[in-house]
Design a protein that fits this description.
Blueprint lengths: L5 E3 L3 E2 L13 E3 L6 E5 L5 E8 L4 E10 L13 E6 L5 E6 L5 E10 L4 E9 L5 E7 L6 E3 L6 E5 L6 E7 L4 E8 L3 E7 L5 E6 L3 E7 L4 E9 L14 E7 L1 E2 L6 E5 L5 E8 L4 E10 L13 E6 L5 E5 L8 E10 L4 E9 L6 E7 L6 E3 L4 E7 L5 E8 L5 E7 L3 E7 L5 E6 L3 E6 L5 E9 L13 E7 L9 H5 L3 E4 L10 H4 L2 E5 L7 E4 L4 H4 L8 E5 L22 E11 L14 E20 L5 E18 L6 E8 L2 E6 L5 E2 L3 E6 L6 E2 L3 E4 L7 E4 L6 E5 L8 E8 L46 H6 L5 E6 L3 E6 L5 E4 L5 E3 L4 E5 L6 E5 L6 E6 L3 E10 L4 E2 L4 E2 L3 E11 L4 E5 L5 E4 L8 E3 L7 H6 L14 H16 L3 H18 L4 H16 L1
Parallel strand pairs: 3-5, 12-14, 21-23, 30-32, 39-49, 43-54, 53-54
Antiparallel strand pairs: 1-9, 2-8, 4-11, 5-10, 6-9, 6-11, 7-8, 7-10, 13-20, 14-19, 15-18, 15-20, 16-17, 16-19, 22-29, 23-28, 24-27, 24-29, 25-26, 25-28, 31-38, 32-37, 33-36, 33-38, 34-35, 34-37, 39-53, 40-41, 40-42, 43-44, 44-45, 44-52, 45-46, 46-47, 48-49, 49-50, 51-52, 55-60, 55-62, 56-57, ...
């Protein structure tokens, strides 16, 4: 905004002279932004002040000479005061002189200095008199100061024209706000971003709030300038002008806030989140003037304002009458215009007093609490205007009845259908009975609205308790099937237990992932209703406090979650088998509907520990939140289980019911993997890729703890769980992540989605929630899993050049689509799993002298094994053992062949090929052939074939690739001629030819 030079006062003279004369006086250096009080005590004396400044800088000079009015307490130079401003060379720039009678003053605002140097201000009596004077000069180069986001800042503009520049370090995406209350009204504020560009510019009135959402992280500057008076009655109009900056604090909604305006020009500022169309009620009790009340409140001068996210005024309330003994203010059912942050500021109306107050802000994001269908349920309206939301599940047509009793009225009660439409709505009272007959099945919502009574005391703001009594006839029939087949879990003593989801909601913050800039905190106390909000998307996540996933994890103590109920979640649904989705499930009949029982287990944290075939335990991936499950497919006629599918990591195992360990013929046993919580049908180590790679460690009979349904007896080493049903239209609709999202350089560190949305693998997007039979038919996605044992570093490339692998600086490239996990290591095995049908190339770079083992496992569609009665993964495996390596070694393996290309010295030239297992060369393969492999009349040719193979290996070692290819062609013809069992040798020759042609 452009500022104009304007001069106010009885007289002003701006002149330029080449010479001047004055009486001698001592010189003082001006202290900027400070009211100076002095006196001309000797006739013809001149007080001289100096200051340094630069060309183009601006100053404001304000002088008060006193008053010639008889009753005035301000005697001084009066109408004879003179102020002159000189340059360093003695040129008179301007002269301010007071000539009128009465109150005398001079003002020079925003004067631009013409040159660099030392300036002088001379003050004198225009004739030969004496008297006092007061003046101030604003700082031409205002300094910046740090502004706190936590504590109040009490400060003052020193004199007229002073500017304050505040610096605050912010994080992108966060909202920052301060209320300002001061003796003088404010003229403007300007916010500059870390680049120095103007981010926001505003004009304001006598009481304002600065609020903004940072677009980038870094140091923001806030420049403040007050509005100054145009008429002086005393030196107080020169300065100082005190004010207070109060940072916003999070409002405790639905809670009575007892506040205090402790100092003059103070304000309390509260922030809360609201959504478009929701309502908020704000109630304030300012105190009583009654003689016997004894209350030191703000009384008739209390005031609150409701402000938008940018600090704009939405509503303001003060006591209706100054003369009333009891003072209060209310804003009832105000409809919020948009989603975002809102503010409420509370202050003394004029800023000139102090006092206490009580404030209530109704909740704008009411938690939906489960409502028991029977018995007493106690509820509380936190503050006046609160809405209470209760949820319950009911089948259409089944009547429900509750009785409501309270000392306070209910304005209205409403029941919403699962789709959000209104089922019934009626006026309430202190006592009434609700009779509800749902017309659709699912989760319903009961909303109770507070009556909004008058405020005569602090207690009229809240809280208000009530009781809901559910009729015994409300009790629903339990889901007998879910109870009948509830599993028994076996889990290590020190592992996390499956818990109710409150174990993460109450321990987490809800964030929005902004990817490039810092993530935005949405709610520090997420509730069921908040995470089920329909406007949330997959960018939102729950972040457990004091826990970190990834390669450098911070594991929360399992004991931290013992206060939450041990529970599993059950769900019954129907799904139809078809010829396409049941090819591997021969017990299922096409075009037949089957009952599906799903049991979901939520573990607060995943710290996977796996076992190598050498017996050592190795760390796996770590992430917050872990959803695991099993599901049963029941015979539609007998309700007897046909199949059980146990999920693990990225896939699952299909069991026939007869293959499982079962208690009382109905409760299947689940053995839980150590830390990673994979579900297995038997204890011990369950290898889920080739045997040389990883296996899940599950409890065996010696170190097992059982977790059973509450109805089953528990012994010394046992714990009961509660079986909870998953609501169809509540938290399971949360589209975000139960835990932090995957970290940039730590594949496999991200939390899971809700059960409704879980699906693994780029080429296996089947959602087990919506397509349980299709998932059971093929629970393992197509892909590749590989492990390299030291001393090598493993990298993977796809045909597009995308890479997965560790870099020298410790970062990780994770570019190949379908990457499930990659775990590097300095001295242990490195492993990777990628779900893709693309050809992959594995590169192995030596890090030391030694031998290396490398294993690749192909995960493909699992055929059903009739003999075992279960589905087994069909794994095409490549095994390379005892390969000599050095720091210059490079090995290349493609998923399209079974040979390792070897470059021993790292010069880019192929030095040899290494076969799998114990048959690394052609010559050893031919030497190992039995006589029966040769045609009888050509058995004597073994030596010729062997010589030819050894020649090929020598040519290969010398890098003579073209000659090697020609000799391979000759050997191929000889093998076809001499050998009657030549398939294995010919296959090796063909692979070597293809590899060399590529080279």
């Amino acid at each position: 905004m452009q500022k104009r030079l304007f001069v106010i006062g009885p007289a002003l003279c701006i002149c330029f002279f080449s010479s001047f004369s004055l009486a001698h006086a001592e010189t003082e250096e001006i202290i900027f932004d400070q009211l100076i009080t002095a006196e001309i005590s000797v006739p013809k004396e001149v007080d001289r002040y100096t200051f340094d400044a630069e060309e183009g800088q601006k100053i404001t000079i304000a002088a008060f000479w006193g008053s010639s009015v008889k009753e005035s307490a301000w005697g001084g130079l009066n109408q004879f005061g003179v102020l002159q401003l000189y340059t360093q060379s003695g040129v008179l720039l301007l002269k301010l002189a007071s000539t009128s009678r009465g109150l005398q003053w001079n003002i020079l605002d925003d004067f631009t200095l013409p040159e660099n140097g030392t300036y002088a201000i001379h003050i004198s009596h225009s004739f030969s008199g004496t008297g006092s004077y007061w003046f101030g000069v604003s700082d031409p180069n205002p300094r910046s100061h740090t502004l706190s986001t936590q504590e109040r800042t009490h400060t003052a503009f020193g004199v007229r024209g002073s500017q304050h520049i505040w610096e605050v370090n912010v994080q992108a995406g966060n909202i920052y706000a301060w209320s300002i209350q001061g003796e003088r009204p404010f003229f403007s504020w300007i916010i500059r971003d870390p680049n120095g560009d103007i981010f926001e510019e505003r004009e304001w009135n006598d009481h304002s709030t600065i609020a903004f959402q940072a677009e980038q992280s870094g140091l923001y500057q806030i420049a403040l300038e007050p509005f100054y008076p145009t008429f002086f009655i005393s030196p107080k109009q020169i300065g100082p002008f005190p004010y207070t900056l109060t940072p916003a604090t999070t409002a405790l909604q639905a809670t009575v806030i007892d506040g205090d305006i402790e100092t003059l020009y103070d304000t309390n500022l509260y922030g809360f989140f609201g959504s478009s169309g929701s309502t908020v009620t704000i109630s304030a009790y300012w105190g009583s003037n009654a003689p016997d009340a004894g209350e030191s409140g703000l009384h008739a001068y209390g005031q609150f304002r409701l402000l938008g996210e940018d600090g704009s005024l939405l509503a303001m309330r003060s006591p209706e009458s100054l003369s009333r003994a009891i003072q209060s203010s209310t804003l009832n059912d105000f409809v919020l215009p948009h989603d975002g942050t809102y503010f409420v500021d509370v202050r003394h109306k004029w800023g000139t007093g102090t006092g206490t107050y009580s404030l209530g802000i109704s909740s704008t994001l009411q938690e939906c609490k489960p409502l028991p269908l029977t018995g007493e349920t106690h509820g509380t309206y936190g503050v006046r205007g609160d809405r209470q939301k209760w949820i319950f599940q009911r089948t259409a047509g089944q009547e429900l009845k509750w009785t409501y009793t309270s000392a306070t009225f209910v304005k209205r009660w409403t029941v919403q259908n699962p789709d959000g439409t209104e089922l019934i709505s009626q006026d309430g009272s202190r006592e009434f009975t609700m009779i509800i007959t749902p017309n659709m099945s699912g989760t319903h919502t009961l909303i109770l609205e507070d009556f909004l009574g008058n405020i005569s005391t602090k207690q009229d703001i809240g809280p208000f308790s009530y009781v809901l009594i559910g009729a015994e006839t409300n009790a629903p029939p339990e889901d007998a099937l879910l109870l009948r087949y509830a599993p028994i879990l076996h889990i290590f003593d020190d592992d996390y237990r499956p818990k109710e989801i409150a174990a993460i909601l109450s321990e987490s913050d809800l964030y929005k992932n902004n990817f490039i800039v810092q993530d935005q905190l949405i709610n520090s106390n997420p509730t069921l209703s908040i995470i089920a909000h329909p406007e949330l998307d997959t960018n939102y996540y729950l972040d457990i406090e004091n826990a970190e996933p990834g390669n450098n994890p911070i594991l929360p103590d399992p004991e931290r979650f013992t206060k939450y109920q041990t529970a599993i979640y059950g769900r019954r649904t129907l799904d139809s088998a078809s010829e396409e989705n049941s090819t591997n499930l021969p017990l299922l009949k096409p075009n037949t509907a089957y009952t599906i029982l799903q049991y979901w287990f939520f573990y607060p944290y995943n710290n996977f520990i796996w076992r190598h075939s050498d017996g050592t335990d190795r760390p796996g991936n770590n992430h917050e939140g872990d959803w695991e499950m099993i599901q049963l497919i029941l015979d539609p006629e007998t309700e007897h289980p046909l199949y059980a599918i146990y999920s693990w990591h990225w896939g699952g195992t299909v069991y026939k019911w007869e293959e499982l360990e079962v208690t009382n013929e109905t409760h299947p046993h689940v053995y839980v993997g150590k830390g990673g919580h994979a579900s297995w049908g038997e204890g011990g180590v369950n290898f889920y890729v080739i045997e040389k790679q990883r296996g899940d460690i599950t409890p065996d009979t010696s170190d097992v703890e059982s977790i059973k349904l509450t109805s089953l007896n528990c012994d010394m080493n046992c714990e009961n769980f509660s079986l909870l049903e998953i609501p169809e239209n509540q938290w399971n609709n949360f589209p975000g992540i139960w835990g932090e999202p995957e970290k940039l350089f730590s594949p496999g560190s991200g939390g899971p989605f809700s059960p409704k949305f879980i699906g693994y693998g780029l080429n296996n997007p089947t959602i087990r929630w919506s397509e349980p039979i299709k998932w059971s038919n093929d629970p393992t996605p197509f892909g590749w899993s590989a492990q390299a044992n030291s001393p090598v570093n493993l990298s993977v490339f796809d045909p597009s050049g995308n890479r997965v692998g560790a870099n020298v600086d410790g970062t990780i490239d994770a570019e190949i689509p379908g990457l499930y996990e990659f775990v590097p290591s300095d001295d242990g095995p490195e492993y990777v799993t990628i779900f893709t049908e693309e050809r992959l190339m594995f590169e192995l770079q030596g890090t030391d002298v030694g031998t290396m083992d490398f294993f690749v496992s192909k995960l493909s569609e699992p055929p059903f094994d009739e003999a075992l009665g279960m589905t087994q993964m069909n794994q095409n495996a490549m095994v390379f053992e005892d390969v000599p390596v050095s720091p210059t070694f490079i090995g290349i393996v493609s998923t399209e062949d079974d040979l390792m290309q070897i470059d021993q010295n790292g010069d880019g030239v192929l030095d040899g090929l290494h076969g799998q297992g114990d048959a690394p060369t052609l010559s050893t393969m031919i030497a190992a052939l039995s006589d029966d492999a040769f045609h009888k009349r050509f058995r004597h040719t073994r030596h010729a074939l062997l010589s030819q193979a050894q020649l090929i290996e020598r040519l290969l070692q010398q890098g003579l690739h073209r000659q090697t290819v020609r000799r391979l062609t000759v050997l191929e013809k000889l093998c076809k001629m001499f050998l009657q069992d030549n398939e294995e040798v010919l296959q090796r020759i063909v692979v070597m030819q293809e590899v060399l042609e590529d080279v």
